[in-house]
Amino acid sequence: MEGDCLSCMKYLMFLFNFFIFLGGACLLGVGIWVIVDPTGFREIVAANPLLFTGAYIMLAMGAMLFLLGFLGCCGAIRENKCLLLFFFMFILLIFLVELSAAILAFIFRENLTREFFTKELKKHYLRNNDTDVFSSTWNSVMITFACCGVNGPEDFEAVPRLPHLLMEETIPEACCLRKLQSREGMFVNRESCLAGNEIFQNRQGCYTVILNSFETYVYLAGALAIGVLAIELFAMIFAMCLFRGIQ
């Protein structure tokens, strides 16, 4: 009976580690996608240090889970006590780090609000000054997502104009409609756009556009993170039970 229980525990251990392996692969894939994505998400990440750090943490955690899932599967099948103990200690460490990261993300969630981005835009944005990293990043985001400011063109009323700009320019040219949404795309009518003609402007704020674009992915990532934490917890329990059961 004890042998059957140990055998069952071994295969459950293998199953949960296989899910950890898959979860690590998913996190690794999402982390790589966020960092190298050419459609503009990496620009948003670069604009906020919290998101930038989070993307690399996700990448590192994905790689570690990928490796540990593989080691856990090997330890379970081969019934190697040393490998199982090694797996348990590292999966416990990862579990505590992920839990701490989730708590910190909840505590600092106000840094991702509409008000925070609006304040930062009005404080640091220098319009078409592409030598400034913050301004260049915001321009890339607005061009890529065909949006303007955080809430809309009205955000730039409080942004000072550069000395060489025409006084009638009400918004940065990144807010102007283009035939192709890229920096190389031709303007539909640049002069009329900068003069305030709304027909040739992107009127929707970037916060709403980006939130709508990535809302599905955010919920998916959250559900995936919860699932990974639950699987890690069960894997630790099975690893310790299997470790104690092996003679």
Automatic annotation (TrEMBL):
UniProt KW Transmembrane helix keyword: yes
Topological type in the membrane: Multi-pass membrane protein
Alphabetically ordered keywords of this record: Glycoprotein, Membrane, Transmembrane, Transmembrane helix
Signal peptide extent: none
Gene Ontology cellular component terms for the protein in this record: plasma membrane
Keyword match Membrane: yes
Highest taxon, organism lineage: Eukaryota
Cell compartments where the protein resides: Membrane
TM ranges: 12-36, 56-77, 84-108, 217-243
Family indicated by similarity: Belongs to the tetraspanin (TM4SF) family.
Protein name: Tetraspanin
Gene name of the record: Tspan18
